[in-house]
Amino acid sequence: VKIIHSRPWTAEDRANLTQQLHSQGLDVDTSNPRIHKARGEGQASMDLVPFAADYYPQGFHAGYPRNGFKHNTEARLAVKELKLRAAEHGRKIRGYSAEQAVLKAQQQHKHADFRDLRAHAEAALSLGC
């Protein structure tokens, strides 16, 4: 499970999560500095990974949520708008590239609406539409 937060996690956040998981009666394995492995009694384990943390080694990227569009109307609309504008200007853009650019824009601009997300993604992809 990726933990999305408005700022990178700190070592203090990591310690707080460990404490909270223990208080819920879960066994917690923190041997990997990037992942919490939480396991309840007789249950499968769950990996918890902050999207961004200041204690990650340089170059580590947790990746985007597995389905970042399922309950994300603004991102879905931004991708549609981005692809439509690119097509109107005779530019082809792959769906995956558009999706990744929009998700990255959404991480950087938390409360942006779909038009702003589209504009940020468009700039990042150097489409010039």
Write a brief structural summary.
With 129 residues, this protein is of the alpha+beta class. The chain has helices at 11-23, 73-88, 95-108, 114-124, and strands at residues 2-3, 27-29, 36-39, 45-50.
Write up this protein.
There is one protein chain. By secondary structure, the protein is an alpha+beta fold. The chain folds into two domains: 2-50; 73-124. The chain is 42% helix and 12% strand. The protein has four helices and four strands, in the order E-H-E-E-E-H-H-H. It has helices at residues 11-23, 73-88, 95-108, 114-124, and strands at 2-3, 27-29, 36-39, 45-50. Strands 1-4-3-2 form a four-stranded mixed β-sheet, with helices on one face. Strand 3 and strand 4 form a beta hairpin. Helix 2 packs across helix 3, helix 2 crosses helix 4 and helix 3 (95-108) packs across helix 4 (114-124). The protein is elongated, with a radius of gyration of 18 Å. The model has no long low-confidence stretch (mean pLDDT 87).
In which range does the helix fraction lie? 40-55%
Number of strands: 4
- Mass-distribution shape: elongated
Strand percent estimate: 5-15%
Going by helix content, strand content and strand pairing, the class is alpha+beta
Q: Gyration radius, to the nearest Å?
A: 18 Å
Low-confidence stretches: none
Total helical elements: 4
Our measurement of the CA-to-CA distance between the termini, rounded to an integer number of angstroms, reads 36 Å
Provide the domain count: 2
- Biggest sheet, spatial arrangement of strands: 1-4-3-2
Average pLDDT works out at 87
The largest β sheet comes out as: 4 strands, mixed
- What is the H/E string? EHEEEHHH
